[in-house]
TrEMBL record:
Alphabetical list of PROSITE patterns matching this protein: GLYOXALASE_I_1, VOC
The protein's name in its UniProt record: Catechol 2,3-dioxygenase-like lactoylglutathione lyase family enzyme
Keyword flag Lyase: yes
Gene3D superfamilies: 2,3-Dihydroxybiphenyl 1,2-Dioxygenase, domain 1
Gene Ontology molecular function, alphabetical: dioxygenase activity; lactoylglutathione lyase activity; metal ion binding
InterPro entries: Glyas_Bleomycin-R_OHBP_Dase, Glyas_Fos-R_dOase_dom, Glyoxalase_1_CS, GlyoxalaseI/FosfomycinResist, VOC_core
Domain VOC: 4-110
Key words of the record: Dioxygenase, Lyase, Metal-binding, Oxidoreductase
């Protein structure tokens, strides 16, 4: 049985630029760094940045990150210059930004229970809530 996300690895073209984004803008903690990779921590998320040649996706695949409600507006302000890739249409507050390598991120206030409660109140066609 799966118990959670172990870690996420993102390939980045410029490690110092990516570190500036994830540490300075998002507030993640740098835990280890080598010449071609770095390990960061954000809450329970373990993120590995690995230098290489990223290939951004054209679909809606993305990583959604949680934050405290009290931090949401400040994070949005720090990300004001980051390109947007989607407009929020979900039940909770969300900001959809691209990191410097085009990885799609969502800053989201909500959880699975709030999403399912929204779907119970507004059932999408063909969806069954279990």
């Amino acid at each position: 049985m799966i118990t959670g996300v172990n870690h996420v690895t993102l390939v980045v073209a410029d490690l110092p630029r990516a570190l500036a984004f994830y540490v300075d803008a998002l507030g993640m903690a740098l835990r280890a760094q080598g010449p071609r990779s770095a390990y960061l921590e954000g809450g329970t998320l373990w993120l590995c940045l690995e230098q290489g040649a990223p290939t951004p996706r054209a679909d809606d695949s993305h990583i959604a990150l949680s934050c405290a409600t009290s931090d949401f507006e400040a994070l949005c302000a720090r990300l004001s210059d980051a390109p947007r890739w989607k407009t929020n249409r979900s039940e909770g507050a969300s900001l959809y930004v691209l990191d410097p390598d085009g990885h799609k991120l969502e800053l989201h206030l909500g959880n699975l229970e709030s999403r399912l409660a929204h779907y119970c109140a507004n059932p999408p066609e063909g969806m069954t809530i279990l």
